[in-house]
UniProtKB/TrEMBL annotation:
The modification 4-aspartylphosphate is found at D50. Residues 2-114 form the Response regulatory domain. The keyword Transcription applies. This is Sensory transduction protein RegX3.
């Protein structure tokens, strides 16, 4: 996912960009409203928008973004007044978070917004109300929560399926361990890294396709695309 960060404060932008990068997101930064409007393109999947920009009010930027694109917009600003939140939402923002915020909360909001607006993005073979990913004779049904190998059902535990599903949403893409732990165990605790390894080993054994889930050294895991 490519996120446009619209933030004029170098310190805030650098820290946020580094955190999102570690969480598996690609980022690009705009220092003001004019640059933000120039940088928005078909590959922009979400905008994090500060309101206190040097050239124009962020609310106006939000309106202009919404006039040209349906890309999700999350306003992240120090303005905490209820009226500002109302203005932002009425301008077309999808969510609003007040600085200083916990980056984990922001990450959860990003995931919630993209899941709500693009529930089937990144899924190969999705059609109708079904979400199917098929790789090397393995079929992953994200709706029925079922995995089959050559039409034979594979019994996975809930956590095992959650891991497979998290990888299946981004076939061919290396998903960081931190993101898998956060999505499956709903925590950032690194103590779950070993548990993730054990679950992946069990999945490989049950599915019988060791190369289906590739270990990406220093990053995480990738489902064969």
């Amino acid at each position: 996912m490519r996120i446009l960060i619209v933030e004029d404060d170098d310190r805030v932008a650098d820290a946020l960009g580094a955190f999102l990068s570690r969480s598996g997101y690609a980022t690009v930064r705009a220092v003001d409203g004019a640059q933000a409007l120039e940088l928005i393109g078909s590959d922009t999947e979400l905008v994090l928008l500060d309101l206190g920009l040097p050239d124009m009010d962020g609310i106006d930027v939000c309106r202009r973004i919404r006039a040209q694109s349906g890309v999700p917009v999350i306003i992240a600003t120090a303005r905490s007044e209820v009226q500002e939140r109302i203005r932002g939402l009425r301008a077309g923002a999808d969510d609003f978070v007040v600085k200083p915020y916990d980056v984990r909360e922001l990450l959860a909001r990003i995931e919630a917004v993209t899941r709500r607006l693009h529930p089937l993005d990144g899924l190969d073979g999705a059609s109708g109300d079904r979400a199917l990913v098929e790789v090397d004779g393995v079929s992953i049904d994200l709706v029925a929560r079922r995995v089959t190998v050559d039409d034979e059902n594979v019994e996975l535990t809930r956590k095992e399926f959650d891991i497979v599903a998290a990888l299946a949403r981004y076939p061919g893409v290396a998903v960081p361990r931190e993101r898998l732990i956060r999505e499956v165990w709903n925590t950032d605790w690194q103590s779950f890294a070993r548990s993730l390894e054990v679950h992946v080993a069990s999945i490989r054994r049950k599915i019988g396709r060791p190369s289906l889930i590739e270990t990406v050294r220093g990053v995480g895991y990738r489902l064969e695309g």
